[in-house]
Design brief:
Structural class of chain A: alpha+beta
CATH architecture of the largest domain in chain B: 2-Layer Sandwich
Structural class of chain B: alpha+beta
Strand order of the largest sheet of chain B: 11-12-9-19-16-17-18
CATH topology of the largest domain in chain A: Ubiquitin-like (UB roll)
Number of strands of chain A: 5
Distance between the termini of chain B: 68 Å
CATH architecture of the largest domain in chain A: Roll
CATH class of the largest domain in chain B: Alpha Beta
Strand content of chain A: 5-15%
Number of helices of chain A: 5
Oligomer: heterodimer
Order of helices and strands of chain A: EEHEEEHHHH
Helix content of chain A: 25-40%
Distance between the termini of chain A: 34 Å
Largest sheet of chain A: 5 strands, mixed
Helix content of chain B: 25-40%
CATH class of the largest domain in chain A: Alpha Beta
């Protein structure tokens, strides 16, 4: 049994230590907002927060995140400024990468409430979007920065 | 209250629930209005990002005069009644959703509205002419009385459906043509939207398939017992796609597959690699082709031409790269089969299930989930067939998820392509002759062989034989090349390569004629006002002809496909020492006729621009040892945020025929880029992708 704290809730999971956190979230706990894209740290669809930092859950063994605070897209409130901005800019198309994009953007703005364009690009570079919503993602992030809302 | 549409080759019939019971059609609803005042619109098209779960309901709701806040969407099951009237199949593709469903859905909405008005008039004992539908209510004009649709639906459902209800005039539209927020947006940003990969079925097993590494490779050995020793593994099955391992957990299935230690032979084409393949394509250029178009007298015209130019272009095989890997969940039983699948092709999935299970169509239930990208890949049935076979063999519900590596290596790729074009100009610098020979594999021979006429695959020559340019002597030939590499429909299909070659070559001819590329195009489109208009708007918005920053260059390209005219103007700079291209800005103009959801049109053109830019800059499938060499996004790269230019989309609202929007933005971006690179650097790039390496090699050309 492995004890996990996800979105402020405690879970006990019967799984071996080396299984990636991604699969535990998705297939064991049915928190399916976190997506599988590549399993190779290349697409960022599986991005979650571990102790507030954006991490690729496909690269983390579940045994290594015991006792750490894990946040997934399901733990982000509906009125979160980034979600609101995502709505205002009508960002998603197929929507598959968007939870990862939002989790990465929250981590960025939590660390730096006024990032330069370069900082935004650097932070978001790891998250692929095949539908090409990048311009709108950039606009949504900048909207939150402009409006100066506290995260 | 329920309205059904029965779409037949002779048109659409509209039926109420009661009429449906009497009729021989199986009852299937398109619009349901329930006493809780909810309007549910059943959508027969797959939502893969293109916005059909919003735009198709907008069409119905506008005619219905529904309160948009009460509108809900449901995915249609796979049934004859939901077939696309154009295809005769339930299929999402070819940028047809709005084009083919606009009329039937308007009529269905209008019919329901008329019935609700009649029901209210009957309730009040007044003539229907004194009543009007407005935003989910029917009002009596002479009194203050009103009833909402929920209150009227029961009575309305007992009325017969008018066959020719009056449709709104364009100025009466309240939703069509506006910028509407997507109905699927909230669940997509909350992570609650259910994609295929998110499906759970009680007692399901996870499956993983060990696949041949090369085309035609046969299994030599595998360790059945070792796989079965992995905790949770329950079955090891030989299928025609490889060895499948089924386990209670996904990690168990994947570990079981590793433990199989499957060994394969070298396959049927061990010498196939990127170099031999390219050589093979170029050799085919010397073979005689089949005539796809012959207008005028090409030899005579070329002979008389004042200036002549010849060029050869080479384009790679491309991977779809849907971000959601292929997956399907299937449950095959004695008397019922369920499929949960992100598919573009419900009719095909139904046929696969009939064939594999032997069940009747009414015993097969297809649940279409959200699609994490489609782009043509999800019109294929390979993953559906695999899940069905494994479920049938095990008797268990099976969730099959491909890894990214399986997805990269087992695609039906955008065909590789090469072509040779020869053209001649007259004294005035006008094109008098254009001869174009295309070498390409055939997509349609496998998918819809009936579409291949006289040996010509329409996808191989589309956008060339029907190009808009006014050229008196046009010759288009097709040489089919056969390789073991599976090919399929990739967003914009044949237009994706043919627009590149036609629009690059037009640019080359403009320079040869010493004419401005925009003016040159215009002068060959005298009878094509829509083409001229998109060119004019894009050029004006992009500041065509105005000075640029030092080192920057501009390129323009126009293409007509899927009923829509699109122009892109790209602004780039090129690092001539390393060959790196920087795309600064893309200004687009699109004429897709009337617009349903303005924001969807913009989003699709933005997305298509980046889809095409990604391919033009960096995408290429590499082959070695008889199979695909690329594995994952580290060696099949896609465009990321740092390479994304500023994009401006201008939508022309014309009154012309409806055009598609999902695909037409893709074809003209690669040539706009190549033409901009030439303008900036003098380097003409005739091979894709335009990697630094290709750009450097092109300098010598």
């Amino acid at each position: 049994m492995i004890s996990l704290e996800i979105n402020g809730k405690k879970y006990e999971v019967d799984v071996s230590q080396e299984v990636p956190l991604l699969w535990v979230l998705r297939e064991y706990l049915k928190l399916t907002g976190t997506k599988f894209g590549c399993g190779a740290n290349m697409c960022g669809a599986c991005t979650v927060h571990v102790d507030g930092k954006a991490q690729r859950s496909c690269q983390l063994a579940v045994g290594d995140v015991k006792g750490q605070k894990i946040t997934t897209i399901e733990g982000i409130p509906e009125d979160h400024p980034l979600k609101q901005a995502w709505k205002m800019e009508q960002v998603p198309q197929c929507g598959y990468c968007q939870p990862g994009q939002i989790m990465q953007a929250i981590a960025l703005l939590t660390e730096n409430s006024n990032p330069s364009d370069e900082k935004i690009i650097n932070a978001m570079e790891g998250i692929l979007c095949r539908c090409g919503t990048y311009p709108r993602i950039k606009r949504a992030i900048k909207r939150v920065v402009r409006e100066g809302k506290k995260l | 209250m329920t309205i059904a549409i029965s779409i037949t080759p002779f048109g659409s019939r509209y039926l109420s629930a009661q009429e449906m019971e009497k009729s021989s059609f199986s009852p299937n609803a398109w619009i349901q209005i329930t006493p809780d005042n909810r309007v549910t619109i059943i959508v027969n098209k797959s939502e893969m990002g293109q916005g059909v779960y919003t735009s198709l309901p907008m069409i119905v709701a506008d005619e219905l005069e529904a309160d948009w806040k009460q509108v809900r969407v449901k995915a249609a099951p796979a049934r004859d009644e939901y077939k696309d009237p154009g295809f005769g199949m339930q299929l999402t593709g070819g940028s047809t959703s709005i084009r083919n469903m606009f009329e039937p859905l308007r009529k269905a909405g209008a019919a329901a509205r008329e019935m609700l008005v009649s029901a209210a008039a009957e309730t009040w004992g007044v003539p229907p002419g004194e009543c009007e539908a407005h935003q989910g209510w029917v009002r009596h004009r002479k009194s203050v009385r009103k009833l909402n649709y929920g209150e009227l639906c029961d009575k309305a459902s007992k009325l017969s459906v008018p066959e020719n209800p009056p449709l709104k005039k364009e100025y009466q539209f309240k939703l069509i043509g506006t910028r509407m927020a997507r109905l699927d947006l909230q669940e997509k940003i909350d992570g609650k939207a259910t994609f295929g990969i998110d499906v759970f079925v009680p007692d399901m097993l996870y499956a993983a398939i060990s696949r041949p590494p090369a085309y035609g490779a046969k299994i030599v050995s595998y360790e059945n017992e070792a796989a079965k020793k992995v905790p949770g593994v329950q079955h090891v099955i030989v299928t025609d796609r490889g060895i499948a391992v089924c386990a209670k957990t996904i990690d168990g299935a994947w570990k079981g597959r590793m433990a199989l230690n499957a060994q394969w032979d070298k396959g049927t084409h061990p010498d196939l690699n990127s170099e031999t393949l390219e050589k093979n394509f170029l050799q085919h250029l010397n073979q005689p082709g089949l005539s796809a178009k012959k207008e005028g007298n090409i030899e005579n015209a070329l002979g008389k031409a004042v200036k002549k130019l010849e060029a050869t272009y080479i384009l790679p095989y491309l991977y779809h790269a849907t971000l959601e890997p292929m997956n399907c969940t299937a449950h095959v039983r004695q008397d019922r089969c369920d499929l949960w699948v992100p598919t573009q092709f419900q009719s095909g999935a139904l046929m696969s299930a009939e064939k594999i299970t032997g069940l009747k169509p009414e015993q097969i239930h297809i649940h279409t989930t959200y699609l994490g990208g489609g782009f043509g890949r999800r019109a294929e049935l390979d993953v559906v067939e695999e899940a069905l076979q494994i479920s049938k063999a095990t008797g268990k519900p099976i969730k099959l998820i491909w890894t990214r590596e399986e997805d990269v290596k087992n695609d039906f790729y955008r065909p590789g392509n090469c072509c040779r074009i020869e053209a001649g100009l007259d004294q005035q610098g006008r094109i008098v002759a254009w001869s174009h020979k295309v070498v390409a594999p055939s997509i349609f021979s496998r998918f819809f062989p009936q579409m291949v006429k006289d040996g010509i695959d329409p996808a191989a020559v589309e956008g060339i034989s029907d190009m808009e340019y006014e050229i008196p002597n046009l010759n288009v030939e097709y040489v089919k090349i056969v390789t073991p590499i599976p090919v399929g429909f990739w967003r914009s299909v044949g237009h994706s390569h043919n627009a590149f070659t036609v629009e690059s070559f037009i640019d080359e001819l403009a320079y040869l004629a010493k004419r401005d590329p925009l003016e040159f195009r215009m002068s060959h489109l005298r009878k094509h006002p829509r083409a001229q208009q998109v060119l004019r708007v894009a050029a004006e918005r992009a500041g065509w002809g105005k000075p640029l920053r030092k080192g920057h260059g501009r390129g323009i390209a126009y293409h007509y496909s899927f009923g829509s005219h699109v122009v892109h103007v790209a602004e780039v700079s090129v690092d001539k020492t390393e060959g790196k291209i920087k795309v600064h800005k893309v200004v687009s103009a699109v004429d897709c006729g009337p617009v349903v959801n303005l924001d969807t049109v913009k989003a699709q053109i933005e997305g298509a621009t980046l889809f095409g830019l990604s391919a033009a800059l960096m995408e290429k499938i590499q082959f070695s040892n008889g199979g695909v060499e690329n594995e994952n996004f580290y060696n099949y790269e896609l465009i990321r945020m740092s390479d994304v230019p500023e994009i401006e989309v201008n939508v022309l609202r014309s009154r012309e025929k409806l055009g598609g929007v999902g695909e037409p933005g893709v074809p003209p971006i690669a040539p706009a880029l190549a033409n901009a690179v030439f303008n900036a650097s003098g380097i003409r790039v005739r091979n894709l992708p335009m990697t630094p390496e290709t750009v450097m090699k092109s300098i010598k050309v």
